[in-house]
Backbone:
């Protein structure tokens, strides 16, 4: 331990320690800024969380199938970012209901559908559980019966099923992820299409494979900023997010709509935007202050 130096934990998982390309970038930058930094697993029982001035959640990639345990852990960590209140709200994608309720554009979503008449008008649909990460248990369906069967399988397992139209723009344009650090827009990255037609449910997709830094349009930035601005009212009492990733797609009219707001453990795409590492460091410094 470095005496007199503020200690920061970058919180990850066993898989994250092995595979997260952002951990070393962030840790090196924070150390160069004079901080004592450890990359530690959230489920390591030997970690003294009170010994850190700040614990920053990064690649806790196993949270989605251990959610009660993860939230219980988060409740015992002082100075956690993003904070427990945001994690409780954002780790279940039912938060999309709240965002839609305040009038912001969200991809149309049907919850726990059971009949074909409930399906949005589309050629294809995406079905996924509301608690998920890395496209686990997610699939793209052209057959309404297959989509409903997938949803039924999820609900039978006690999970909340989400069904959304598969927007054709994704195949050509992908998703646009807008990254905010310390409450300010930092950079945008295009994520290539991940769900292939006819492949069904897979657990081995690589969501970090097809990435390209892009310039966000004025319309995308306006929607993303409005989504971020809504969080304070939707989660009263929560500390402002240290980071946020807002994933947008284009609807059939070419308008940007929200696919996901990620406040729990989103990739920040630092390898695609090396200049953003300094903004991440500044956000951590601000949280320490």
Residues:
């Amino acid at each position: 331990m470095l005496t007199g130096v503020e200690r920061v934990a970058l919180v990850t998982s066993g898989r994250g320690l092995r595979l997260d390309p952002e951990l070393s970038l962030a840790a090196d930058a924070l150390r160069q800024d004079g901080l004592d930094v450890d990359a530690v697993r959230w489920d390591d029982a030997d970690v003294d969380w009170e010994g850190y001035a700040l614990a920053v959640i990064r690649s806790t990639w196993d949270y989605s199938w251990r959610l009660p345990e993860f939230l219980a852990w988060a409740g015992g960590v002082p100075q956690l970012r993003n904070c427990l209140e945001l994690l409780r709200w954002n780790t279940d994608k039912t938060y999309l209901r709240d965002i839609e309720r305040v009038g912001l554009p969200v991809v149309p979503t049907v919850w726990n559908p059971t009949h074909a008449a409930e399906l949005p008008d589309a050629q294809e649909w995406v079905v996924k559980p509301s608690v998920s990460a890395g496209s686990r248990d997610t699939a793209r369906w052209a057959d309404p019966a297959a989509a409903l069967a997938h949803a039924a399988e999820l609900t039978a397992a006690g999970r909340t099923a989400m069904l959304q139209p598969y927007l054709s723009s994704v195949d050509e344009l992908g998703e646009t992820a807008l990254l905010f650090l310390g409450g300010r827009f930092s950079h945008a990255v295009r994520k290539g299409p991940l769900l292939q037609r006819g492949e069904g449910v897979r657990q081995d997709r690589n969501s970090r494979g097809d990435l390209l830094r892009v310039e966000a349009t004025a319309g995308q930035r306006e929607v993303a900023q409005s989504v971020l601005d809504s969080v304070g009212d939707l989660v009263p009492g929560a500390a402002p997010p240290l980071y946020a990733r807002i994933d947008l797609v284009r609807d059939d009219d070419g308008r940007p709509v929200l696919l996901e707001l990620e406040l729990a453990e989103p990739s920040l795409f630092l390898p695609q935007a090396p200049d953003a590492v300094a903004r991440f460091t500044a956000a951590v410094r601000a949280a320490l202050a």
User: Anything to note?
Assistant: The chain has two domains: 7-90, 95-270. The CA atoms of residues 109 and 164 lie 5 Å apart.
